[in-house]
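Entry for fe (ii) ion complex. Fields follow.
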Amino acid sequence: MTGMTLNRHRLVVFPLVAALAATSAAALVQSPHIAPPDAPSAGRLVPPGEPGTPLSASGSVVSPDGAPVAGASIYAFQTDAEGYYGVKPESDNRRPRLKVLLRSDARGAWSFETIRPGSYPGSRVPAHIHFEVSAEGFAPRLFEIVFEGDPFVTAEMRRNPAFSVRPVGAGGKVTERIVLTR
Ligand SMILES: [Fe+2]
């Protein structure tokens, strides 16, 4: 979902970045949305002490036949507990303050610690965590985790593969099995 605040500087810069990425493998490697090859499989999406309800997210990356995909790049980002991507009142989802870059381990596993995001202020957009996942030989995948019980989750979202409606279990745990297709 798009951020609430359009940043004119970003609107100018991003088409240029996209053009460079399309013509240069080096630009792709340096993309802020691709994890470094040596990125950890477990990390923190929020700094220690970030206000909010703690949430532990974990899961796997697999191919359609269920085989683990090792070394997949996972970029996850979200709003803070009040629904802002930046420092209130800034909310540019292209420059989120809260984000993490991971690589799935040999078993395809990944995990991060975070807090429950908030809905965009004054909106009926469900709270969500964005994921951008890519791996050699697979189509990149963009989707959002939204949370079971959120009153803003719609029936349409439940049918839409761009959303994954997940329950939050005991102790604030949420899991996601990320299937990549070729
Ligand atoms: Fe969003």
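NOTE: The longest strand covers residues 54-62.
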